[in-house]
Design a protein that fits this description.
Layout (H helix, E strand, L loop, with lengths): L5 H7 L3 H12 L3 E3 L6 E6 L6 E3 L5 E2 L14 H13 L6 H8 L3 H19 L7 E9 L20 E8 L4 E6 L4 H11 L5 E4 L14 E4 L15 H17 L8 H13 L7 H6 L3
Parallel strand pairs: 5-8, 8-9
Antiparallel strand pairs: 1-2, 2-3, 3-4, 5-6, 6-7
This protein binds zinc ion.
Zinc ion binds next to loops.
Length: 289
């Protein structure tokens, strides 16, 4: 998947100091105007401490400040390697696997995974959607439908989380956890993200019925009547994303709670959105700090 192999990784980041130096370079550079003495200065690493110091006034800068590494006792190289694993795996990295590969506790591995997912979500950034966009919702998590009589009146969606998503054909995907499938909720996201005049394909759910009135070229397919394609309209792209997402989460993680679901979604969006340039995934993630 990536041209950046494990061997390449350890060649480039053989020690914690190499990682720290990389962090310093991408965050501040090593030669700039000192914020304290205002002279143009070269900052050099202080022995045995993770800080860099001004050549004139000894003012110190920590490249880890404000990053998840700052308060972590896990060495920087392990963090970098964990990020490497996240960007080179196809289905995500379970905490158990991180624990095994890094030699850290399960709790630490679990926390690292969540910090990395947060960054993957942030790097993906704020895109606008245009051209031809597909939208759909899906249900994730919760307990399995129980068919025993005492559960008969229970909704099949009980305990599940609604995820709404939009994908540009041949472009990027963006998902949201939503509380209700209402026009108001969908409209809020459409107004924020979708460029005027965009062609939009959905199913016949009532929550999408404002789109035409709002000036979009809206077409639908009626899945209940076994209609999957209607001219240029179908929702196969977004449905493909849902099924890959669900398979990956099911195969990789034991349980994903509603609280952390947005982070997992962010991770999978990142991977999908970077699919055409997998070798930049790790670089972009490193650049995010
Ligand atoms: Zn200075």
């Amino acid at each position: 998947m990536s041209d950046f192999t494990v061997v390449d990784f350890f060649k480039r980041f053989p020690t914690d100091d190499y990682c720290l130096n990389h962090l310093m370079e991408i965050r501040f550079g090593t030669s700039f105007e000192c914020p304290k003495c205002k002279k143009h200065s070269r900052f050099t690493k202080v022995q045995k401490r993770p800080v860099y110091q001004c050549q004139w006034c000894a003012h110190q800068i920590s490249p880890m400040a404000g990053t998840p590494f700052e308060k972590s006792r896990t060495p920087l190289q392990k963090w970098f390697y964990a990020m490497y694993l996240f960007t080179t795996s196809r289905h995500g990295v379970p905490a158990k696997e991180l624990q095994r590969q890094l030699g850290v506790t399960y709790k630490t591995a679990w926390r690292m995974g969540h910090e990395i997912r947060k960054y993957m979500t942030n790097v993906d950034g704020d895109n606008q959607y245009g051209g031809h966009v597909e939208m759909d919702e899906t249900f994730m998590g919760g307990r399995k439908r129980n068919r025993s009589p005492s559960y008969k009146r229970e909704s099949p969606f009980k305990g599940k989380t609604i995820v709404y998503g939009m994908v540009e054909r041949d472009g990027k995907v963006q998902t949201y956890v939503i509380d209700k499938r209402t026009r108001k909720t969908i409209k809020k996201h459409v107004d924020a993200k979708v460029v005027a005049g965009t062609v939009i394909s959905t199913d016949e759910a009532p929550c999408y019925q404002f789109l035409e009135k709002d000036g979009f070229e809206h077409g639908t397919v009626c899945h209940e009547h076994d209609e999957w394609v209607n001219g240029i309209h179908h929702t196969n792209t977004i449905e493909g994303f849902w099924s890959r997402l669900k398979n990956s989460i099911r195969g990789t993680h034991i349980h994903v709670s509603k609280k952390y679901l947005p982070n997992y979604l962010g991770e999978f969006e990142y991977r999908y959105n970077m699919r055409k340039s997998p070798k930049w995934m790790f670089e972009r993630l490193l650049g995010a700090f």
